[in-house]
Design a protein that fits this description.
Helix content: 40-55%
Number of strands: 6
Structural class: alpha/beta
Order of helices and strands: EHHEHHHHHHHEHHEHEHEHHHH
Number of helices: 17
Length: 335
């Protein structure tokens, strides 16, 4: 029940939608809940007034209660109904507890009576991100795994794939679909770390608070980075080092040629001018340089490759092996 001594500036509908979007993303629970709750209290709780340093000295349970009062008051002002059984709250807690390790301090943030049922009434039917489509599904009696497989909204997440860059994020899910393993339907979350060293740093952090397995993918020159991870590698996790070189080297020659011609406005590249024994990125850099084109942007080229994927013949043998390994880890981890 809302504290009668509070003076609240109601959240706007758009602010509530942003808050629930942020609360249901794939992030460490304490980090995302405190960030959202701090924001709400600092901007919408008029009395008593807190500054950030004061909030940081409060117990999590108190922070949760203040934010909960602001949210529920705002939803009430918008005429949103509530569910006295708090079914969605319980499902959210169960899900976060299945994915993340946390103690009583974090449990106090998730054990709340926020009117999530009321929030649902503010969401449109169209163009929702994966996490909000999953959030809406929590309000039904449908098996959530079946719902995810039917509607391809990725949540609940069952395995994390940790990669070096965004090229993998763009292309690996596409190749997986051609191998009858849809990341969005199977609960696979791909996280690009932004480089080899960042992969190591990210794994060290993730392994501390994740319960679900992690598949770590390195380019061939990431062997020393992989060794940094090995001492902390959990039994559920696996490291894979690409044998042929970088991720781009996993592309079949036909797909690579097709994408390259598309990138060059369909100007044919004479076969005898391209040495396909060279690393793919080296080939691209040389061609872009010789033709006086803009600097090669691997992520942009990955988007071009994605447009030119035609069939399962575009999936190289090593790409298939990588996908099969991810699939096997996922199957060994039943939600």
């Amino acid at each position: 029940m809302e504290d009668a001594n509070l003076k609240i500036k109601p959240l706007l509908k758009e602010q509530i939608i942003i808050s629930i979007d942020r609360l249901t993303r794939f992030k460490c629970p304490e980090e995302k809940y405190l960030r959202v709750f701090y924001d709400i209290i600092l901007h919408n709780l008029i009395e008593p007034k807190y500054n950030r340093s004061e909030l940081e000295n409060l117990e999590n349970e108190k922070i949760m209660t203040l934010a909960q009062d602001v949210i529920n008051f705002s939803l009430d002002k918008l005429g949103c109904q509530s569910d006295k059984n708090f079914v969605i709250n319980k499902k959210l807690f169960e899900y976060e507890n299945s994915v993340f390790k946390f103690g009583d301090n974090i449990k106090s943030l998730l054990t709340n009576k926020i009117n999530y049922f009321g929030m649902l009434q503010l969401l449109s039917e169209n163009d929702l991100p994966d996490n909000l489509r999953w959030f809406k599904a929590l309000n039904s009696d449908v098996d959530i795994i079946k719902a995810r497989r039917n509607d391809a909204f990725r949540y609940p997440i069952e395995i994390l794939v940790l990669t070096e860059g965004a090229t993998e994020e763009t292309l690996l899910p596409e190749f997986a679909k051609l191998c009858n393993f849809d990341f969005e339907r199977e609960g696979v979350y791909l996280l690009p770390a932004g480089g080899k060293n960042q992969v190591v740093k990210a794994y060290y952090e993730l392994s501390e608070y994740l319960k679900i397995p992690v598949f770590v993918l390195f380019d061939n020159d990431g062997k020393s980075n992989a060794k940094e991870i090995e001492p902390k590698l959990r039994t559920t996790d696996e490291i894979y080092i690409i044998e042929c070189g970088e991720f781009e080297d996993l592309l079949t020659q036909k797909l690579f040629e097709r994408a390259l011609n598309y990138e060059l406005q369909n100007i044919s590249i004479p076969a005898d001018t391209v040495d396909y024994h060279l690393p793919r990125v080296k080939i691209l850099e040389d061609i872009f340089k010789k033709r006086g084109m803009h600097e090669l942007k691997k992520v942009e080229f990955a988007k071009t490759v994605k447009k030119n994927i035609l069939s399962c013949e575009d999936v190289s043998p090593e790409m298939r092996r990588i996908i099969e390994k991810i699939k096997k880890i996922k199957l060994n981890n039943k939600y």
